[in-house]
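Protein modeling request. Please complete all fields; requests missing the sequence field cannot be processed.
Requester role: graduate student
Desired output: 3D structure, token encoding
Chains: 1
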Amino acid sequence: MTTENTPGRKRRGAGRVTLNTVARQAEVSAITVSRYFNQPESVSAELRERIAQVVAELGYVPNLVAGGLASARGRIVAMVIPNISGPIFASTIQGFSDTLSRHGYQLLLASSYFDVAQEESAVRAFLGWSPAALVLTSHFHSPGTEKMLAEADIPLIETWDYQPDRAPVQIGFSHHQVGVSAANYLHGKGYRRVAFVLNSAPGDLSALERSEGYAATLRGLGLEPWIFTPDADRAPFEAGKQAMHALMQASPRPDAIIFANDNLAAGGSLAAQRAGLQIPADCAVLGFGDYPFAEMLLPSLSTIKPPALEIGVLAATRVLQSLGVLPVADEVQRLNLLQCQVIEREST
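Delivered output (348 residues):
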């Protein structure tokens, strides 16, 4: 209860800066301000600069909820990534976000950490907010997620993968083929006892696909595959160390090791050096991801570089084309096969 001497609680929205307030102060129409937020490319550079200055001065925040409800769609695009903190996905996220924001859309991001149950929870929450589009990583989903995807009426994209038989737009590469390329590369360098170390995150099924490509290639070359699985959920550097110690105690030991990612490869490489082994003389090391530190290791790390940035930019472009924001000649291209690249450095 308020009294004469006690100020009443400020009513929500009282004194709030509105779109019309911005329009009046910028001396433009409300429609122009609306276009500034929703279709910035349709507003001249001079007017954009004037409106931006007024928006900053007034601290104006557009009511995106109301706009979203009016059109039954928001200007938010939802994305689920296996690991937000992982350097392998950083360029994808940045390229995706930058491309969206240039056209007035924003990214809503969640991490599943290779857990299909966590991904399902994120997808359910995101769809409840009626995003403009939904972007997932790979094709490994729970039955619950698959059911939601089948019933969703928004653009759907699967990235970091390539499965032509699936309905969502595909933007990525074949993990099986990456395993093939890795095995052929090391075989071409003269290595014959080649091992593969899986990710310590048990839900990383894409790494398992790469190991299957590696194994099929070795068998085709008349060699025996050798797959090592670190303890579940062991930290990546520790998992790489564990793998290197275990494999180097074998007799005969491998002369080359493919690691599921560069973190594992770095852990294994450092562990080998502490044990007095020379890389690549005693054992060659090949990673996956081309993380920023790969070139700075001593010896520098040979790795397979995925098209991470290209995936992000292309995924956002396909979303914007599906929404009619960007022009497209015909139907939005559903299949977008990209290529990975072997980066040869000192470790092989």
